[in-house]
Amino acid sequence: MTIRVLDPTFEGSISAVVEPNRLTSLTGRSIGLLDNGKPKGREFFDHVEQILRSEYGVTSVLRFEKTDASRPATAEMIADASRCDALISGVGD
Q1: Beta bridge partner(s), residue 30
Q2: 49 vs 34: CA distance, rounded Å
Q3: Which of 5, 13, 22, 26 is deepest in the core (most CB within 10 A)?
Q4: Is residue 63 helix, strand or coil?
């Protein structure tokens, strides 16, 4: 019997991480809400949207919903979300 040992270390180079500019205010901004598709996620984000609009002056909310939590967001969804000033991703249940 042969034992195969895998080495999980990474030997490639890592480029510098560029952090995005932080928002100083949400007033007048466009916020994306990404629902992972689990139960009660829609209800949660309905509440989050109401708070963002009424208490933080957010003018535009774009909603995105994945088909299920185990799959990544599609390239199209990510491209659409890039139009937002910020994105909130959440987990239902």
Answers
A1: 60
A2: 11
A3: 26
A4: strand
Do residues 87 and 32 lie in contact, with contact meaning Cβ atoms separated by under 8 Å? yes
**Contact by Cβ (8 Å): 63, 35:** yes
Q: And the tokens for 61? A: 């909310």
Instruction: Provide the H-helix boundaries in 1-93.
Output: 41-56, 75-81
Q: Of 35, 48, 34, which is closest to residue 93 (Cα–Cα)?
A: 35
> pLDDT at position 13, please?
78
pLDDT in the model for residue 8: 84
DSSP 8-class letter at 67: S
Grade residue 54 by pLDDT with cuts at 50, 70 and 90: very high
> Is residue 57 within 8 Å of residue 27, measured between CB atoms?
yes
Q: What is the pLDDT of residue 88?
A: 94
Q: With beta carbons less than 8 A apart as the criterion, state whether 25 and 54 touch.
A: no
